[in-house]
């Protein structure tokens, strides 16, 4: 097993009157190369679990192993892509993609070569001399993805990366990240509260519920890619997820009768 979350509880501000239990008794095993979505409503501990696995936070109880080693701190082998892209405004697209590579100690020619390869992969060749303010939100997110992939990380953490995008751009980015994942087969942990997004992207969906944050269940998504959002199999899994959250239309109708 590549990532192991063993009985992990996280309490922020422990031993203070402000103590809050964000996550309770989480157990999760992730295989190398899997695309995992953490799905749930606000406050269910998705970001907390992501930050614990990425090493930005420490568990209050339990432990997390990555490739057999206890996670204690963030590592250069794991990259995180946030909702706000995290691009440097004074650098061009090329400069932003080169950023992570510079810290790996490659020479200038190699850095330029690798950056160009990934700029091409996300379809931004014509824009490599542009600055972030000259790009749309979707294009900025593609730069962030190119920058993340360029350092050839073992794991990519994505915390609601498409949250700020309009619906059409968001679907296009879902297509792109899904086909990039197929090409590169990186282990991806992707936080979302969008049910359709999780069914479109994930190999497995980790269903989380709040008060306190818990892993409620895990749903397999054994659908071939590229996925069709209108296919009956897609809709059946979507339905299953709705049932897990007790949000099915049938239940609401019963309630009103
Ligand atoms: N640094 C922190 N200090 C104290 N409490 C925190 C901290 N971070 C998160 N929490 C609390 O822990 C709980 C889980 O938060 P978390 O951000 O992990 O949930 P989430 O599912 O990612 O929510 P959202 O979808 O709104 O981002 C919430 O009640 C939140 O207020």
UniProtKB/TrEMBL annotation:
The Gene Ontology terms for molecular function here are: ATP binding; ATP hydrolysis activity
Q: Which residues form the ABC transporter domain?
A: 3-235
The source's superkingdom equals: Bacteria
Gene3D superfamilies assigned to the protein according to its UniProt record, in alphabetical order? P-loop containing nucleotide triphosphate hydrolases
For this UniProt record, give its keywords in alphabetical order, as a comma-separated list. Answer: ATP-binding, Nucleotide-binding, Transport
Asked if Hydrolase is a keyword of the record, the answer is no
By what name is this protein known?
Answer: ATP-binding cassette domain-containing protein
- According to its UniProt entry, this protein's organism is Defluviitalea raffinosedens
């Amino acid at each position: 097993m590549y990532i192991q979350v063993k009985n992990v509880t996280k309490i922020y501000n422990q031993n203070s009157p402000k103590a809050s239990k964000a996550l309770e008794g989480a157990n999760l095993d992730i295989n190398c190369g899997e695309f995992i979505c953490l799905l749930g409503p606000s406050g269910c501990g998705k970001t907390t679990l992501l930050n614990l696995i990425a090493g930005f936070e420490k568990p209050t109880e339990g432990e997390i192993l990555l490739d057999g080693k206890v996670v204690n701190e963030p590592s250069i082998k794991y990259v995180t892509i946030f909702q706000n892209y995290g691009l440097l405004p004074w650098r061009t697209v090329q400069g932003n993609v080169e950023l992570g590579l510079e810290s790996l100690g490659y020479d200038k020619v190699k850095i330029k070569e690798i950056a160009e390869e990934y700029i091409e992969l996300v379809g931004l060749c014509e824009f490599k001399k542009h600055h972030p303010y000259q790009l749309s939100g979707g294009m900025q997110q593609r730069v962030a993805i190119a920058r993340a992939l360029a350092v050839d990380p073992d794991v990519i953490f994505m915390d609601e990366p498409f949250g700020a995008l309009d619906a059409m751009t968001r679907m296009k980015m879902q297509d792109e990240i899904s086909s990039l994942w197929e090409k590169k087969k990186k282990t991806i942990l992707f936080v979302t509260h969008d049910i359709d997004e999780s069914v479109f992207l994930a190999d497995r969906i980790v269903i989380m519920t709040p008060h306190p944050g818990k892993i409620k269940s895990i749903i397999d998504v054994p659908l071939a890619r590229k996925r069709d959002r209108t296919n009956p199999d897609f809709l059946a899994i979507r339905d299953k997820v709705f049932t897990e959250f007790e949000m099915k239309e049938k239940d609401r109708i019963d309630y009103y009768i």
